[in-house]
Design goal:
binds pyridoxal-5'-phosphate; single chain; 16 strands; 19 helices; six-stranded mixed sheet; globular; Rossmann fold
Length: 450
């Protein structure tokens, strides 16, 4: 059988298979790869997930994409190895549940994608006998997850750029204390500056020999594994065929697109709520049809979501029949009515975020950090517009509160417990480069530092 093909959202590069899309990261025309059509899971296949452990669900979902690329037994082993931690579903009231995606080695949901990606990438490179530099910009959590996932994978050098003033000390230490094949570069600038430098490096013909790949959410290999926990949550909470609601704290919209992918593959989803902080370009677009990226991006307590122009919007727009280029320009308007049927989006200010952390703690003794609180409040905003009608709803908590101890303590008066993996990292010595948001400097670093 022929392998599934992936097309660029800019429509100017040839369609490629998963392996190629994965190793390139971004398409040559600067678009993002997206499946030409989505493989389907039948209602029976989805119903069978109810009795399966997470890694087995991951295998059944992802094998629809890897047919002809990775042998089934190898994929099954990778899934079992990558997903060896808990995914708590905490009931809050009625059928409203918080899904904690924060039990991986760097205490953020980004471990789910990074751990799968690292294993697949390591496998592809070993098959080819090649070497690769993974270049990634982080607003806090990606860097740590990617650095940990790729640490000591042969053939791979990892370079992480982060905005020096926008990440918490624990977030930073989870990146800068790794040695060996992992390098971290602190940039005097914002996340968008880091992301722009990474994009420029990818577009730079004089760096083609390195070669570079991305672990940012623009990589399709990052996106597909993020569809699995939606199937998992539904398998534990929804009856066969029953719809479910998800509220996803969103920055680059990779997590939210995971929910979209699950829906496209056949999961009955009533609504996907994309909850954002003050970076509200998307809710405004959804309401008006007019897209204006926010530049520079706005700082907020949910710092991993300080994204002025979410790169995955190009994929969302493509899914609804439109076209958006990498600068955020809409070349063809998507079907906004259809988008509004499937999606809801609201913007949650820092004041509302902090009030939510307090309220949810006081009312339910449930501890959320800022990202999860944005998702919670976005869900409540949606409830003011539509009724849940007894369906299950899942609010995603994407980071462990212990990553933001100062903020939590300020908000509710005590500091959260720190998971053991984090305690260990925080004690190690740090090692990172520090430079201005200057592409020429960064390029020379890329070329000289092995
Ligand atoms: C990255 C991140 C997000 C946003 O995810 P996107 O896929 O970029 O929308 C939300 N919460 C946390 C804790 C994150 O690290």
């Amino acid at each position: 059988m022929s392998a599934l093909l992936f097309r660029s959202t800019n429509g100017q590069s040839p369609a490629v298979n998963l392996r190629e899309a994965f190793l390139r990261g971004q398409a040559p025309d600067r678009g993002l790869y997206f499946p030409e059509k989505f493989p389907q899971l039948t209602p029976e296949e989805i119903a069978a997930f109810a009795k399966l452990p997470y890694h087995e669900i991951a295998f059944r979902v992802l094998s629809k994409y890897t047919d002809g690329i990775i042998p089934a037994a190898a994929l099954a082993a990778i899934c079992a190895d990558a997903y060896n931690f808990e995914i708590p579903l905490e009931k809050v009231y009625d059928r409203v549940v918080v899904m904690r995606l924060d039990q991986g080695p760097t205490a953020s949901f980004k471990d789910f994608a990074a751990r799968m990606m690292a294993r697949l990438m390591g496998r592809f490179l070993a098959e080819d006998g090649k070497q690769l530099t993974i270049l990634t910009a982080t607003s806090g959590d990606t860097g740590a997850a990617v650095a940990h996932a790729f640490h000591n994978v042969p053939g791979i050098r990892v370079i992480v750029l982060f905005p020096i003033d926008e990440v918490s000390l624990s977030q930073r230490k989870l990146m800068t204390t790794l040695t060996g094949n992992v390098r971290t570069v602190a940039i005097d600038g914002k996340f968008d500056d880091c992301q722009a430098m990474v994009k420029q490096a990818f577009a730079d013909a004089s760096l083609k020999h390195l070669p570079l790949s991305s672990a940012n959410s623009i990589n399709i290999g990052r996106l597909l594994p993020q569809s699995v926990y939606y199937f998992y949550a539904a398998s534990r909470l929804a009856k066969p065929g029953e719809e479910i609601v998800f509220s996803v704290p969103s920055g680059n919209f990779g997590d939210m697109m995971g929910a979209m992918v699950a829906k496209q593959m056949g999961l009955p989803v009533r609504k996907i709520i994309a909850s954002v902080n003050d970076n509200d370009a998307f809710p405004k677009f959804l309401a008006s049809g007019h897209y204006e990226k926010i530049s520079p991006s706005r700082n907020s307590v949910s710092n991993a979501m300080n994204v002025g122009h979410p790169s995955n919007l190009a994929r969302l727009v493509a899914l609804y029949g439109g076209q958006m280029d990498e600068t955020g320009k809409i070349l063809r308007q998507p079907n906004l009515d259809a988008m509004r049927r499937d999606l809801f989006s609201s913007s949650v200010s820092d004041d509302r975020t902090r009030a939510t952390i307090r309220e949810v703690w006081n009312k339910y003794e449930l501890l959320l950090e800022a990202h999860g609180a944005v998702a919670w409040r976005g869900f409540e905003d949606w409830l003011e517009t539509e009724s849940l009608n007894g369906l299950p709803a899942v609010i995603l908590e994407t980071a462990n509160p212990a990553k933001f101890p100062e903020e939590i303590e300020k908000t509710i008066g005590f500091a959260p417990d720190v998971p053991p993996a984090m305690t260990a990292a925080i004690k190690l010595p740090e090692d990172f480069e520090h430079m201005g948001a200057d592409y020429a400097k960064f390029k020379s670093y890329l070329l000289t530092r092995n």
